[in-house]
Amino acid sequence: MKIGYTMAPGRGDTNLMLHRLASSLIQQGYRPVGTVQINAERESAGPCDMDVKVLPEGVTIRISQSLGAASRGCRLDPAALETAVGLVEAELAKGADCLIVNKFGKHEAEGRGFRPIIATALAADIPILVGLNTLNKEAFLEFAGEFAYALPPEFPALEAWLRTHLEARTTAA
């Protein structure tokens, strides 16, 4: 099994594509598990709030912290991320058609976050689609190795790749 990954050039574009893809899969009767990110603009001039929706129909969790207008560091709330990871792990245990991870980020690059869940899904031959940014690309490729498969940041390409793997699993079952 391959781990498909994609990187859209615009800020937030990968999030929008993965959210659209997960919604489409659910409407088609598939059971994707994982997370999609939803950014909410703030009324103040500060950076957006980052939320993840746990798939397929789970809760939405705020994974960003408000650190003040002058802050420049990472706004990720590690405890909130790990809460999302635990919920996804529980959903994966119930069975999944595919795993969607909104982002292989700093925590995953350091061996935490969704990294163990990606490994579990890979071992179970579950198709995996991961959002990626250039900052963590090297760490992702080191982790995924020969299983990594680059996909263009286009909805039809992502859907076609995933559908091919979903249909192959259905045929093999």
Characterise the protein shown here.
- The protein is an alpha/beta fold and 173 residues long.
- It is 40% helix and 20% strand.
- The protein is built from six helices and seven strands; from the N terminus they run βαβββαβααβαβα.
- A seven-stranded mixed beta sheet has the order 4-3-2-5-6-1-7, sandwiched between helices.
- The longest helix has 18 residues, at 155-172.
- The two termini are 15 Å apart.
- The mean pLDDT is 89.
Topology record:
Elements: E1 3-6, H1 13-27, E2 32-40, E3 49-55, E4 60-62, H2 78-93, E5 98-101, H3 106-109, H4 115-123, E6 128-131, H5 137-144, E7 148-150, H6 155-172
In short:
The protein is of the alpha/beta class and 173 residues long. The protein has helices spanning 13-27, 78-93, 106-109, 115-123, 137-144, 155-172, and strands spanning 3-6, 32-40, 49-55, 60-62, 98-101, 128-131, 148-150. The model has no long low-confidence stretch (mean pLDDT 89).
Strand arrangement within the widest β-sheet reads 4-3-2-5-6-1-7
Report the sheet-strand fraction.
15-25%
End-to-end span in angstroms? 15 Å
Number of strands: 7
Shape: globular
What is the chain-wise order of helices and strands?
EHEEEHEHHEHEH
* Helix-residue proportion: 40-55%
Overall pLDDT? 89
Main sheet: strands, sense, barrel: 7 strands, mixed
Spans of at least 5 consecutive residues with low confidence: none
Assembly form of the protein: single chain
Going by helix content, strand content and strand pairing, the class is alpha/beta
What is the overall number of helices? Answer: 6
Radius of gyration: 16 Å
